[in-house]
Amino acid sequence: MLHWSSKMYLDADLVPQKKRYQKLLEKKKRTRSLYCITLPVNGKNMMEIYSSGELWFRWYQERELTVIGLAGSREKAQRLAAQICLDTVCREGDISPGIVREYFQDAIK
Predict the structure, then answer these.
(1) How far is CA 59 from the centre of its chain?
(2) What is the pLDDT of residues 16-30, one digit of tens each?
(3) Range list of H helices, 1-109
(4) N- to C-terminal Cα separation, the chain
(5) What is the pLDDT, as a whole number, of residue 107?
(6) Which domain of life is it from (predicted)?
(7) Are 47 and 37 in contact (CB under 8 A)?
(8) What is the pLDDT of residue 106?
(9) CB 104 within 8 A of CB 81
(10) pLDDT for the residue numbered 35
């Protein structure tokens, strides 16, 4: 099941149609290349990047995934992940999986 953080980072190209992409992902509809940045399934990783097609597999459907970023390509998703890390360091002065999870966990819709 997908949860959406209200503090979600977005690729600039996706901002105008954010709700549309969220609905497509929830309904498991085909989308153009779309990548999700999520909080990790295990607590050791900082975050994870998935292609939208990967989320169709049963293993992912059975997990509680919190989406913290959406991007139109893998490269843009990597840039967003780097931006999340940079913003976390600027805001908190440090970075760890716990800090990132705490920041986005407070804002889950």
Answers:
(1) 17
(2) 988 988 888 888 777
(3) 18-26, 58-61, 74-92, 97-105
(4) 13
(5) 57
(6) Bacteria
(7) yes
(8) 65
(9) no
(10) 93
| Residue of 92, 75, 87 whose CA lies nearest to 7 | 87
- pLDDT at residue 37, rounded to an integer: 94
Q: In the structure encoding, which two tokens stand for residue 43, read together?
A: 């607590």
93 has a pLDDT exceeding 60: yes
Query: What six digits make up the tokens of 17?
Result: 């149609």
Structure tokens at 47: 């975050």
**Percentage above 70 pLDDT, the chain:** 95
Q: Are 51 and 35 in contact (CB under 8 A)?
A: yes
Distance, in Å, from the CA atom of 90 to the CA atom of 58, rounded to the nearest integer, reads 37
- Please tell me the number of Cα atoms within 13 Å of 95 on its side-chain side: 13
Three-state DSSP at 35 gives strand
Please give the residue that has the higher pLDDT: either 22 or 78.
Answer: 78
Beta bridge partners of 49: 37
What is the torsional sign of CA 11, 14, 19, 25?
negative
